[in-house]
Amino acid sequence: METDESIDQLRTDLLKAQITLSNINLLQASKWCAEAINGLSNASNITQIPTLEFDPYDLQDYSRFILAKSYFDVKEFDRCAHSLVGCKSGNAVFLKLYSKILSLDKKMAEENDGSDLNSKLSKIIQEIESFNSSSNPNHFLYYLLGIIYNKKRNYKLAQRNLLAALKLFPYNWSCWQELINSIIDFDEAMELLNKVKSSKSSLNPSIMFNFFEVVLLQEFYQQSVDVNQTLEKLLSIFPNFNFLKIQKFLICYHSLDYYQAESIFDQILEDDPLRIDDLDTYSNMLYVMEKKSKLSFLAQYSSNIDKFKPETCCIIANYHSMKGEHEKAIMYYKRALILNKNSLSAWTLMGHEFVELKNSHAAIESYRRAVDINPKDFRAWYGLGQAYEVLDMHLYSLYYYQRATNLQPTDKRMWQAIGNCYEKIGKFDESLKSFKKALSIDNTNKPQESHGSYDPYICYKLASIYEKIASVKECYKYMKLCFDQELDWGITDETSKARLWLARYALELKKYEEAYELTKDLNHNNAHDIEEARAIAREARNRMNK
Fold first, then answer.
1. Distance in Å from the first CA to the final CA of the chain
2. Does residue 449 register a pLDDT over 50?
3. How confident is the model at residue 383 (pLDDT cuts 50, 70, 90)?
4. Residue 48: pLDDT over 80
5. Is the pLDDT of residue 350 over 60?
6. Could you tell me if 177 and 216 are in contact, meaning their C-beta atoms sit under 8 angstroms apart?
7. Is residue 207 part of a domain?
8. Which of 77, 305, 334, 533: disulfide with 103, CB 3.0–4.6 Å?
9. Which keywords has UniProt assigned to this entry (predicted)?
10. What is the mean pLDDT of residues 165-186?
């Protein structure tokens, strides 16, 4: 537990960082620090406001710097960069080059032309390296290098520069977020975490590293005890910081604990009713929970706050999707993408809508855009697998399902999808392994009192594959397991089919009484199966009466 003195010191450090970040127009990082300050547990008043330290070049460039800042504030990025030409202070050089990057992004979005982006980014890299080699290196310029190398997909160089920036200035959350974006798979994430933990750098141990660890592991769908302990430790220091509550919500959401996640987000909205961030993810969850009235209210609510936010457009699209209005949903997802072409949620969910409309090629294009933006999102990989499966391209489908499974290995749906693909291409041994993995996950994820209850669909699939390879003993085992699930799941298509198979098998073994008991009340299935059940019941009864 942090002492009052250490919390006061943390508040001072965050306040100093917020003023510094605001001064150079890193607005998202500045907002994050301000929210963190107001989220601290000890709410005593700030007794002294830190002042910025200036070197001689800062003072020399100051009048042009404040002019450039005013241009930046009204989004005149080219004008901002031009007004700082010839300035020698690190902050001025940073703002000039940062403005150039934002201008390039804006033009690329408007003109959809990135043909000379690489050459322009390379010139910015040269200017940064020239500045850092000739004077005191500026940590914000290292951050800028990280952004550029991420754009170029040179993730190792991006990580090296971002870590250099964070060692000099750890309170830039945008830099931590950029570092998270540079990490593609879970093994790489663990390697980086262990590397920092084992080093003697200023990042370990630190509050900011704890934030980074929680968010990174949450993005890889981890729900381990260590992650939750670190999160609870941070919440004890920042009990009113909604950013941390959102991480808790996302961990519950990824672990399919929807009711707990809903409760957490409802509390966040009570504390911060005009918050739009992450509201689209909340609406995704309400969609899955089939809470139509609440989703309808959320669509109206977010529209009243700001109808031109991409999150609002996604929420309205979700509402139309739930009503089965897929064309309207796609229209709103496209509107979200006009507002933010990198909206991961919009690309992924628009892919789902195209699948519903059986437009597999458009769905594939949407999912591909989603995985380009964030290769860590298992939903987009899974969507690609589904789209190719509709086209009967099972090897492609298998590859994408495997990518999804690497990101979400504890989700039984991934293993079921892989099992189905292997079955369709005739690899029955691999298919059996996949369905058995799904079955073990299904049982593990249930509460203690429900252990032994299995998904009848998975049981039936295992039985039917064993039937295909003529393994009658194993087939009987899983058909019996499937039928036994009627106690917990009620009568389903799979339990009815299993019941019919068991009756047929009992008849072959001349167990007429068992065959009769299994089929006499079977009336949940298609007409053909019901008729066959009645025929088995008649034959079994006739044999019993002889």
1. 81
2. no
3. very high
4. no
5. yes
6. no
7. yes
8. 77
9. Cell cycle, Cell division, Mitosis, Repeat, TPR repeat, Ubl conjugation pathway
10. 93
How far is Cα 398 from Cα 389, in angstroms, rounded to an integer?
A: 8
- Which whole number is the average pLDDT over 398-415? 91
Going by C-beta distance under 8 Å and a sequence separation of 6 or more, which residues neighbour residue 158?
Answer: 145, 146, 147, 148, 149, 150, 178, 179, 182
Number of Cα atoms under 13 Å in the Cβ half of residue 281: 20
Helix (H, G, I), strand (E, B) or coil at 66: helix
Does 63 map to a domain? no
8 Å CB contact between 391 and 360: yes
What pLDDT shows up at residue 395?
Answer: 94
Q: How many Å apart are CA 31 and CA 24, to the nearest integer? A: 13
Work out the average pLDDT over 268-291.
94
Residue whose tokens read 């005191």: 136
Domain membership flag for residue 66: no
**What is residue 71's three-state secondary structure?**
helix
Amino acid at 162: L
Q: Looking at residue 506, which CATH number applies to its domain?
A: 1.25.40.10
Please report whether residue 250 resides in a domain: yes
Domains in the chain, number: 2
Supply 303's token pair.
């529209």
pTM (2 d.p.): 0.86
Reference 248, options 263, 259, 261; nearest CA is: 261
Tokens 């989700």 locate to: 411
Residue 81 has pLDDT above 50, yes or no: yes
Query: For the purposes of burial, counting CB atoms within 10 Å of the CB of 179, is it exposed (0-12), middle (13-18) or buried (19 or more)?
Result: buried
Among candidate residues 251, 266, 281, the one where a domain is terminated: 266
Q: Which two tokens stand for residue 382?
A: 């899974």
- Residue 240 belongs to what domain range? 183-266
Read off the tokens for 463. 């039985």
**CA geometry: angle 160, 161, 163, nearest 5 deg:** 70
What is the DSSP secondary-structure string of 365-399?
A: HHHHHHHHH-TT-HHHHHHHHHHHHHTT-HHHHHH
Residue 489, number of CB atoms within 10 A of its CB = 16
* Measured distance CA(205)–CA(352) in Å, rounded: 42
Least confident interval from 24-28, 56-60, 301-305, 507-511: 56-60
Exposure on the CB side of residue 259, measured as CA atoms within 13 A: 0
